[in-house]
Every structure is written in structure tokens, then in C-alpha cells.
Amino acid sequence: MQDRHFDALASRFAEKIYGGAKGAIRLAVLQADLSEVLPERPLRVLDIGAGLGHMALWLAEQGHQVTLAEPAEPMLQGARERFAQAGQNATFIQAPWQELASQLEQPFDLVLCHAVLEWLAEPHSILPLLQQLTAADGWLSLAFYNRDALIYRNLLKGHFRKLRSDALAGEKQSLTPQRPIDPRELEQQMSADWLIESRSGVRVFHDYMPAEFQARAELAELLEMELAYRRHPTYGGLGRYLHWLCQPCGGVS
Ligand SMILES: C[S@@+](CC[C@H](N)C(=O)[O-])C[C@H]1O[C@@H](n2cnc3c(N)ncnc32)[C@H](O)[C@@H]1O
What we know:
Bound molecules: S-adenosylmethionine
Distance between the termini: 38 Å
Radius of gyration: 18 Å
Oligomer: single chain
Shape: globular
Helix content: 25-40%
Structural class: alpha/beta
Strand order of the largest sheet: 3-2-1-4-5-7-6
Number of strands: 7
């Protein structure tokens, strides 16, 4: 298995993920979480696997100095266009994470790694780099595709054979990730080096709603409810993605 760069998936990703409520909820949760912790000064921000640059642009618009790293040229080009349209500047690096250690030296105040782990052949292998590139008093914003939610959705759909054979990975060229992440396993891998300061679920109920209610729901109300329940002790863990804000152990809170 290899890391899945989104060279061929760029337009489907734009349409299916950011074309509707799913993307709007994702951005609302990530932005609400970050707004709670980020200091009010310009930060050096690195977005690894930045995709089309949605979060990076939001941060640039808040006055932060943003670097986007992304291996797939069509995605990076989409991000460049989005920044140009908004009249914002950033540094764009076309590279996979494996090449970043040699290209970037100084650590960053904020490192984003959103919806990337589950597309890697070996998700845990990126963790040392995230640590290397996050300043001692900086933040890591880590969002990943939640294996627990995928299991729950398959239970609700009665896909028991799929669950018995543990066939949860997406097909080639599908937008279902190849390595859904087990949150407990990831927490274990991170426990020596990171403090997980906050945890939110992204889309804790939207994707489980019956289609007719989904279609009828007002976006503003969906956002309000998703934000209200994102950290609920039961429902938070059902988010299709989980968002963890982490600080290096020994960092300053
Ligand atoms: C689901 S998209 C997420 C994009 C963006 N972070 C977001 O949340 O909208 C996953 C991205 O990870 C990128 N990716 C895949 N393998 C990578 C690697 N080895 N290093 C960095 N990024 C990678 C893909 O090209 C794709 O743009």
C-alpha cells in the first residue's frame, strides 16, 4: 500500500466534501476549536496535506503567516487559486510530508494535519515529523477519519459481513479512506509525546440522519447542533472525523 496523493481525486473531493453541509460542518468545528486556544498574535502556521487550502485560507485571513504543503499538484493549484481570489499570500510547497524535514527547519506555532493520516500507508510514521515541526509551546491540530464511526455506520446499515471480515478500507479511487484510524491506538502512539488538550467530533449526527431529514434541515441549525454536541461524552466519539488539539509534552499551556 502507498500513500494516496489526491492527484486524481481533486475535483471529486471539492464537490463531495466541500460542496455542501459536510464541508461546512467540518470547517465550523475546526474553526470553533482553534478559536478557543489560539493566542491573539500572528502565528507561523504549517498545513500538511493542505488540499484545497480551506483551513489555511481562514487562518491567513486571521492575519497568520501560512505555509501549505501538499503533494498533489491539482490540489495545490486549487489552493493557490483560492488564495489569489481572496487576495491572500502564503508559501506553497509541493511535497509529501516525507520531504518536509529537509525543506523546513524552524518549528511552527501551529501545525495542521487534517484528514491526512487515513490516506497514508503507515499513519503513525508521520508522528515524529509532527513533533519535530511543532514549537515547544505550539499546537498540533490533528483531524482524522474515525474508525469507530465507520463501524457504527456499517452496524446501522446492517453490513455485518463487511464488519466480520474487517473490510472497512475504501476502494481505490474512492473517497472512503484506505486506513480508517482507531482513536485508542492513535492515542497510545501519541501518549509519550503529546497532551491532547481538547477533543471534538466532526459530524456527530449529520451523517447518521435519515436522508429526508438531512435534506430538509437548515444549515444554520445543523451547525448550531453539531457545535453543541461535538464534545458530548457519548456523541463526540461518533464524529465521522475526530479533531484533537494537542501540545507537545512539556509545552506551555
Ligand atoms: C482528504 S484530503 C484533506 C485535505 C485538507 N487537509 C482538508 O482537510 O481539506 C487528504 C490530502 O492528503 C494529501 N496527502 C496524501 N498523501 C500525503 C503525504 N504523504 N504527505 C502529505 N499529504 C498527503 C492528499 O494529496 C490530499 O490532498
